[in-house]
């Protein structure tokens, strides 16, 4: 595993804790790239990231690749890349993804293309966690909430589990009261469809003993199931089709809605936030009729630009990088 020889440069608080959690074997001063990526993904699954984001391993040198020096940054610019080269970094963890839109070519023309070229020439891997670290239970939003004081918090928008609780994306159910021969034929035909799992059990409907057929299937298989069942009008009229949802993750998601155990004045809250973030200034926008003595009980926060996340959240204070809200009080970090 990683040792204390790893250089921590341009630190992001959450990531610093992560790297220190990996540094527990002083006898080893390096780590294989695949093992490091696995540890990073264990800390915060990439499935937590927003669908529009570009997270994970963005640049990979030809294997095998050993990481001796891990370099941390909020944004990977050409100046930061130069610093990473001076530190002889093998791996750059950039909170914001330096590669976001697809590249049609890799030339010396644009600065982002030059980043990729220099990384590959110098065998430096580039990894970005971004919104995966925002959403994680021990991630950036959770860390921001710790500066508010004693409170209970929950995500504003919950993340979903990466997998469905069972096979398939849809469940199809219907009752059949035909003979055993007809029942066996229906089950056999359904099982012949790819990506379909079928179960059956006894059910009573209108005081009649019937057989309940329940099957899980993929989106593609659903069309074949419907096509088969529609051949029998009586059977099809009894069919129920359910769209399965991935379970919500209780402590994982974008933003945090925090309820303080005790209300405090806005002035007190500003002091807490500045102390927690080690900032001398924050940008403050007061809503109509609000003052520094206004009481704060509920805080809605979001790392980064939180317009889409905070919209609709009811709170006394909104804490984010920058957003236009019509009510309440807004603190922007810069």
UniProtKB/TrEMBL annotation:
The protein's matches in InterPro entries, at most eight in alphabetical order, are given as: DUF34/NIF3 (IPR002678), DUF34/NIF3_animal (IPR017222), DUF34/NIF3_sf (IPR036069)
Which GO BP annotation is one of this protein's? regulation of DNA-templated transcription
Q: What is its main location?
A: cytoplasm
Please indicate if the UniProt record lists Cytoplasm as a keyword: yes
Q: Does the keyword Cytoplasm apply?
A: yes
Q: Which GO terms describe its molecular function?
A: metal ion binding
Top-rank lineage group of the source organism: Eukaryota
Which keywords fit this entry according to its UniProt record? Acetylation, Cytoplasm, Metal-binding, Nucleus, Phosphoprotein
Listed under GO cellular component are: mitochondrion; nucleus
Which residues are a divalent metal cation-binding? 96, 134
Location within or outside the cell: Cytoplasm; Nucleus
**A Pfam family recorded for this sequence:** DUF34_NIF3
* Similarity section: Belongs to the GTP cyclohydrolase I type 2/NIF3 family.
Query: What function is annotated for this protein?
Result: May function as a transcriptional corepressor through its interaction with COPS2, negatively regulating the expression of genes involved in neuronal differentiation.
Q: How does it assemble?
A: Homodimer. Interacts with COPS2. Interacts with THOC7.
What protein does this entry describe?
Answer: NIF3-like protein 1
Q: Which organism is it from?
A: Molossus molossus (Pallas' mastiff bat)
